[in-house]
Structure formats: C-alpha cells, structure tokens
Amino acid sequence: PNAFAKSGIKSMTFEDGEEFLMSAMLPTSIERLRFGRNADHLSTVDLPNLTHVTLTPGVKILYPNEFEQCTALTDLVIEDAADTISSGIDSYNHCGIFAACPIERAHVGRHIRSDKLPFAGCTTLDSLSLGSGVKTIPNSAFKGCTALRIVNFSGSSVEMIDNFAFQGCDSLQAVHISDLAAWCRISSYAFDDPPLLARTGHLYLNGTLVEGHLTIPDSVENIGDYAFYGYDKITSLTIPTGVQYVYANAFADCPNLSQVYIEDDSSPLYMDEFFTGSPIDTLYLGRGLGPDLSI
Q1: Model confidence pLDDT, tens digit, residues 154-197
Q2: Dmax of the chain from CA atoms?
C-alpha cells in the first residue's frame, strides 16, 4: 500500500540510488518531484498536480511513455552531469517522451543519446537552457517544438548542432550566450535547415544584443561552420591573429555585413568561402590565405 496516498504532500525528493522509484510511492497531491534513480512506470499513475520535475545524475534511463500521465508538468530540469542519459520514443506516435506534457521551461544538462528524441513534438516548450554536460545537440532533437522562443547556451559546453535540430521551431526569437568565444567554436550542420541565428535574428551576450561591430575574441582559434550565418545585426567584423581556421559559411548571407578587417599576421588564415552572400564592400586583408581556400 502507498503510505503517502492521502498525505497531501506537495514536494518529495528521492536521492541518488540504485533502487527504482516506484510510482506507487507517489501521492496524487505531489506538485514538485526531485529524484536521482530510475523511475518505474510513472506513466501508470495519474499525477494531475505534478508541475515540476528535477532529474539528478542518478537517473540513467528515461522509459517510453514515462510521463504521459503528467498532464500538468510545465517545468523540467535535467541536472548537469558528464555521463549520458538514455531515453525512449513513444512507440505509437514516434514523438518524444515529453511530447504529451505541457512543458514550458526545460533545462537539459546532460547529453541525450543521438538516436533518441525526448523533446521532439513538444509543442508547448517556450524556453530551453543547455548545461555543461551537453556537447552535441542531436539531429532533430527539438524538431517540431513550435512554441520555442528562447534557447540559452550560457554555461553550456555545446560543440556541435546537428542537422534539423530545431526544424519546425518557427517561433524562435533569441539565443542567449555567456561566452562569445565558446559560441564561435560551435559548428552547425544546416545544409537544408537555417541555423539558429538566421532563424532568431537576435544573439544576446550576457543580456546585451550583439550588433554593429563584432570583434572575435583573441582566444578563438577556429570559427565553426555556420557560426553567424544569416545574422543581420552585424555590420562590420574584426578577425584577430589568433584565428587560424574559419569554417564553411561562418559569415555567409549576413545581409548587413559590409566591412571586414583581418588583422596582420605572418601565418595564413584558412577559410572556406565564409562571406558568400554578404555584401562586403570594404576588406582589409592583413595576412595570406591558406591554399585552395577563398573568401
């Protein structure tokens, strides 16, 4: 029997452990749940008042249909951790396991296996933050999150955004970062899908809109594929001597980028047509270009 069934408890915490969290232990009055162990079929119990869920690093697996009865769940936190969390896909509609929940705010602090799509089709998701355990945003990870407005990379360790990661996210308005150098290093694979900055048109560095003149930080050695592709807020650009490689389309199709200053250096700069489609009318080239590569 469930000792908590009629307790009226609104908040519960289950610390990290090997044992399963049994759904029968949860009172229907629960509003906030924090747990650090794999849950056994939360989907078998109606939790009409559960609005906040926090998953600590003790959780290793998220099962298909796990949260389908959590019809009030609006806030989800997957705490930062270096290891991977595995998840399933709803076997009936191939949507992510959170698609049935009205989640509005999510923090994802761990890498989720690339062939699993826990947030796909989550049409109520409004804001997303990414933590230090996330290195790659997998193919189609947030596909169909039609209400998603804000993506926050502050404190994240993202290195790659895969194809179609945000396909169908037509409400995107802003990307927030806390480290410009870290953003420059992210590579996006967006052959058939516009990258984030082309979608949102707004990049905020510690709350301030990145606009006008952009100076790449001295600590940056490589500027990733599509890093600023389609971003319409920058008008001029300085690339310092520390930059060695500028990868494909990093500054392509920036409609207001007209001036580029590449600082003097004896070593060549390797870049792959990264100004294509941008209306450059003033270019200072203070160093040679690597072989077989061009502006």
Answers
A1: 989 999 998 889 999 999 999 999 999 999 999 998 666 789 99
A2: 76
In this structure, the chain runs to a length of 295
Residue 258, CA distances (Å) to 36, 238, 249, 271 in order: 52, 12, 16, 18
Which amino acid is it at 271?
Answer: M
Instruction: Summarize pLDDT for 94-141 with one digit per residue, the tens.
Output: 457 787 789 999 999 998 774 557 888 899 999 999 999 999 998 888
Straight-line distance from the first to the last Cα atom of the chain, in angstroms, rounded to the nearest whole number: 70
Quick check: 287 and 267 in contact, CB under 8 A? yes
Which two structure tokens, joined as six digits, stand for 180?
A: 């410009």
Closest among 38, 41, 6 to 24, alpha carbons compared: 41
